[in-house]
Design goal:
mainly alpha, about 100 residues
Length: about 100
């Protein structure tokens, strides 16, 4: 029998897959809004950044016994790909000068 703390390890893979999709969709939408070229490598990076940020957030906040760990993880899943696309946009603008 697993202790209560080990139950969260079963939830992480499913949550990571959901976070992958959320990160990819968020990055794609921001890329379209900023009129950047939607590249496959950027979408994969957005997906991985969103998923890893979400899993780390749930893991850390779960060990701190923070009750809204999944809500914070969803916020991180959306914010990190947005930041990645903003850095891409900043780099693209500076290269045009």
């Amino acid at each position: 029998m697993f202790p209560v703390g080990d139950f969260s390890y079963v939830v992480y893979p499913e949550f990571a897959v959901i976070a992958l999709f959320i990160g990819a969709i968020t990055g794609s939408l921001v890329s379209i809004i900023l009129k950047l070229r939607v590249r496959g490598s950027a979408i994969v990076k957005d997906a991985l950044v969103g998923a890893s940020g979400a899993v780390i957030t749930v893991y850390v906040l779960g060990h701190l016994e923070f009750e809204s760990g999944f809500i914070a993880a969803i916020i991180v899943t959306v914010v990190l790909p947005i930041l990645h696309e903003l850095f891409r946009f900043n780099r693209a603008v500076s290269e045009r000068r």
